[in-house]
Structure formats: structure tokens, C-alpha cells
Design goal:
The structure holds two protein chains of two kinds. Chain A is mainly beta. Chain A contains one helix and nine strands, in the order βββββββαββ. Chain B contains no helices and eleven strands. In chain B, the strands form two sheets. In chain B, strands 2, 4, 5, 6, 9, 10 and 11 form a seven-stranded mixed β-sheet that branches. The interface between A and B is medium-sized, with 23 and 22 residues.
Chain lengths: ~110, ~120
């Protein structure tokens, strides 16, 4: 059982927007502004999409955005494209005892 | 371009040992913290261990503490994970990851190496 809770699946049609939630506690997501999101295609390594809750590494399209409210972080994918069909994982720093915690992943299907 | 190439994964019996390696290129290896992260179909992604740029600080997940040892050789741009007392639930793909654990900032990932623990 993962420490952060993500919905197992999400879906949307091309051009639509979809949001994926990542719920933690006041000891991780709620306490630190260190939430990251990763995209993973089958058979590939995870790719960093968002870090520090809202920041995008260079090369990541601005269709991907992150936010946080209380103990829940969210990833929004706008203008869905076929290549966005993938698994998405969140991760949060959780302090000096638990270090980092991952979400269980969300399978995003582009219809 | 950052490139991380892992090796060393194989089939090993429970209680056995294995040493994973990761060779880095495309950045100044000795200036960055490095990590190992593993992934299983059942448990998903799990951070395993981190090491500071000069090896002065090492962190371990509770699940591997006292069994795994992380190390690095900056002269050879290499990261290692010595895995002892292996258990069936250590079976996973192990990724070498450049980034800062205390920010959950895992910037670059290798392609992974598969470790299978089974009798």
C-alpha cells in the first residue's frame, strides 16, 4: 500500500483537460513544497514532469502543470494528446524519518 | 545529454548477494547527489538509497537498511549498490537516479536493471 493516494485510472479525449490527484498527510504533502510528478510509458524509465509542486524542467510542455492545496497535490494535463497516454506517479518529501513517499500511480487513457 | 547506464541485475537465490553498478556521463558526476529507486508491479515505485556528492552522507529506506550499501567512485563516474541478504520482495527493476532526495527531485533516470530473487 502506497503512502500517497492516487486514483488508479483517469481518462480524457484529445484536446480535453484532465487532473490527477495525489493525497498525502500533514507530514508529507501538506508540510513540504517538495512534490514531484513523473510520467512513465510501458517499458521505459520514469520522466520528471513537475518538481517543487509547480515547476517544470526544461523541455516539458506547459500543457503539464502542478498545484497543491492542503494535503493534496494535483497534476493537470491540458490539451490532451495521444502521447500523454501513460502512467503518472507523484512523490513527496516526508521528512528525516520517512524520507520520500510515492503514490501508487494513475493510468491515464487518452480516448 | 545526461546518460545513466545500470548493470549487474540477475537471478539470485534468497539470502544471496548482488552488486549493481551505474556509469554516468553528460554531467559532472562528482557534484551531484545520486539515488537508487526500485519498481515492482505490485508495490510500485520505492526510493531505496541516496548518497551525497562526496559520499559523506548516506540514506537508506527502512526496508533495506543494514542489508544494502550505497557507494560511489567519482573518479570513475560510477555509483554502486551492494545488496546482501536478498529477499524475494527485493525483486524489482532498480534505477540509478540523479537528483536530490530531500526535495523529491529525481531529475534523470537510467533504463534500469532487473533483479530477481527466487529459489
Amino acid at each position: 500500500q502506497s503512502a500517497l493516494t492516487q486514483p488508479p485510472s483517469a481518462s480524457g479525449s484529445p484536446g480535453q483537460s484532465v487532473s490527477i490527484s495525489c493525497t498525502g498527510t500533514s507530514n508529507d504533502v501538506g508540510r513540504f513544497n517538495y512534490v514531484s510528478w513523473f510520467q512513465q510509458h510501458p517499458g521505459k524509465a520514469p520522466k520528471l514532469l513537475i518538481y517543487d509542486v509547480t515547476k517544470r524542467p526544461s523541455g516539458v510542455p506547459d500543457r503539464f502543470s502542478g498545484s497543491k492545496s492542503g494535503n493534496t497535490a494535483s497534476l493537470t494535463v491540458s490539451g490532451l494528446q495521444a502521447e500523454d497516454d501513460a502512467d503518472y506517479y507523484c512523490i513527496s518529501y516526508a521528512g528525516a524519518k520517512n524520507f520520500v513517499v510515492f503514490g501508487g500511480g494513475t493510468k491515464l487513457t487518452v480516448l | 545529454e545526461v546518460l545513466l547506464v545500470e548493470s549487474g541485475g540477475e537471478l539470485v537465490q534468497p539470502g544471496g548477494s548482488l552488486r549493481l553498478s551505474c556509469v554516468a556521463s553528460g554531467f559532472t558526476f562528482g557534484s551531484y547527489e545520486m539515488n537508487w529507486v526500485r519498481q515492482t508491479p505490485g508495490k510500485g515505485l520505492e526510493w531505496v538509497s541516496a548518497i551525497s556528492s562526496q559520499s559523506s552522507i548516506k540514506y537508506y529506506a527502512d526496508s533495506v537498511k543494514d542489508r544494502f550499501t550505497i557507494s560511489r567512485d567519482n573518479a570513475k563516474d560510477s555509483l554502486f549498490l551492494q545488496m546482501d541478504s536478498l529477499r524475494v520482495d527485493d525483486t524489482a527493476i532498480y534505477y540509478c537516479v540523479k537528483g536530490y532526495m530531500v526535495r523529491a527531485f529525481f531529475e534523470n533516470w537510467g533504463q534500469g536493471t532487473l533483479v530477481t530473487v527466487s529459489s
